[in-house]
Design brief:
With 130 residues, the protein is mostly beta strands. 3% of the residues lie in helices and 49% in strands.
């Protein structure tokens, strides 16, 4: 399937047999997954490049109670998560690609919950393909 236009994707990361196209500034991509900023939403496209590519998404909440909404096409799931709580979700596959929007109502600064951390980013929820 053709790739999203370069002008649309702000960044592309490979996670195993999947590419994730980051379409806005709401996500912070890291080598193993990505954060959605606290109090924000992020749009990505998950492009599975083989049948072995992971389909599910691990959703791990940050350091504050949070309300998370995941949307892919007509599919929506909402999660009310305690600090550090994890859930596994399975978004639908849409024509080999899954456009996914994740909204995080709350957030935290890692440096506020871990005195050893120097991370001042305002983070909401962590996502990782599984």
């Amino acid at each position: 399937s053709p790739a999203p236009p370069a002008a649309v994707a702000r960044r592309v990361m490979r996670y195993g047999d999947a590419l994730v196209w980051f379409l806005d500034e709401g996500a912070l991509a890291e080598p193993e997954g990505w954060w959605v900023r606290g109090g924000a939403s992020a749009a990505v496209v998950i492009d599975r490049t083989s049948v072995n590519a992971p389909h599910g998404v691990l959703v791990r909440n940050g350091g504050a109670k949070n309300h998370i909404t995941l949307t892919a096409g007509g599919w929506t799931v909402t999660l009310d998560l305690a600090p550090g709580e994890e859930r596994h979700v399975d978004p639908p596959r849409l024509l080999g690609r899954t456009p996914l929007r994740v909204a995080s109502d709350a957030g935290f600064r890692p440096s506020d919950v871990d005195p050893a951390s120097r991370d001042e980013r305002f983070l909401g929820v962590w996502l990782q393909l599984r």
